[in-house]
Amino acid sequence: MPGGRRGIAWLTAHPPPGPFRREFWRSPVRGPWLTSVFGVVLLVGITMLAVTGLLSYAAYDPRLAGNDLTPQKGVLGFYLFDWPTRPVWLYRLSQAIHVILGITLVPVLLAKLWSVIPKLFDWPPARSPAQALERVSLLLLVGGGVFEFVTGILNIQLFYVFPFFYPAHLYGAWIFLGAFVVHVALKLPRMISALRSRSFRQELRTGLAETRPEPPDPDGLVAVDPADPTVSRRGLLGFVGGASLTLFGLSVGQTIDGPLRRTALLSPHGREYGTGPNDFQVNKTAAAKGITAREAGPDWRLELLGPQRMRLARPDLLAMPQYTYDLPIACVEGWSTLQRWTGVRLADLARLAGATPGRDEVFVESLERGGVFGHVTLSARQVADRASLLALRVNGADLSLDHGFPARIIVPNAPGVHNTKWVTRLTFRPARS
């Protein structure tokens, strides 16, 4: 043990050059108080991201056959529950919070990383088992946080660099959240103490000329040889807050219908699509999915499978009772829109196939080629909901080809990809208990 202590003492006294030496970090505003301010914002924000992210995963109903994009999730799906159809705006709200809040928090995350970067170069790497645990949790926290934010932002911009996005984002989230819980448990007392050490209101009144370093701290965040300040804590907080508000303003319009949609410059769906009643977001065009006008033309038929089998042309569907509901489409990328849909209730189609609404689920198949969302299973609850439609028209006009003509699924409170376009077959079957 004495030899071990001498070794640690020698390593401490002989750090490598550059960022491993404490005198390398000279900012006079870096310290426990500033780090704790960013930390408390992230504590609240990341908790909200975690809750809404897990809700988003539950909304995919991965326990239904064919819906699970992460079949190896194991115990990570312990919390899954039957996703409701009401309120119809729940998924729209939760996913908007998840995506827009995630974008808004990027400047705070970067500022927090900047504030603690000396800890990443702490030397020696581990002086005790407790410090080793803290360092591992910190590395997992930083690495997991960066991975989750980067993959999430790439996904909402439709840059599918990671074809394994769904399992990677899920597993990465659990690793990150595990490290986050450990880190909060270790640091919460220090964060509370640091926040109480200075007045937030007073810091907002302190300009550049009056800015002074925080007192020396055991965590080594305060510079041992501080340089003259080039920005006050007030200025840094204002910059980070202004950057977050800017990102919020450039993304919030993607989930609000009306003029604000034009301000959604960070959204790939902030532009206009189609014409007239069909002028709203298109996630994937018919051309991108290999759908031709001929396939969706007069020869198209909807096949119903259940205790009875039927084939219906579009005029047959239009001759059935039609229902109209105002329902949102909300996508995992954060965009959403509210439109007026008209079509045949899924419950009526279930009865036509000899199935029982409320007892039988439905397996929906599309003309779509390629990708992972050419089919979906809708729950018995979704089939039975009075507003669940095989939509034929939108806003009083026929669906455009890009919006799923000749028929598409519209289910209240379902993720956008479950509102399958270009439907060609509905297979009703008893729900699995």
If you had to describe this structure to a student in words, what would you say it looks like?
It is a single chain. The chain is of the alpha+beta class and 433 residues long. The protein folds into two domains: 254 residues, no CATH class; 152 residues, Sulfite Oxidase, Chain A, domain 2, CATH 3.90.420. Strands 2-1-10-5-6 form a five-stranded mixed sheet. Strand 5 and strand 6 form a beta hairpin. Pfam families: Oxidored_molyb (PF00174). This is Molybdopterin-dependent oxidoreductase. Keywords: Membrane, Transmembrane, Transmembrane helix.
Topology, element by element:
Elements: H1 2-13, H2 32-59, H3 90-104, H4 106-120, H5 129-156, H6 165-197, H7 200-205, H8 233-249, E1 302-305, E2 310-312, H9 314-318, E3 323-330, E4 336-345, H10 346-352, E5 360-366, E6 375-378, H11 380-384, E7 389-394, E8 397-398, E9 408-410, E10 423-430
Parallel strand pairs: 1-10
Antiparallel strand pairs: 1-2, 3-4, 4-7, 5-6, 5-10, 7-8, 7-9
Salient structural properties:
433 residues; 2 domains; five-stranded mixed beta sheet; 11 helices
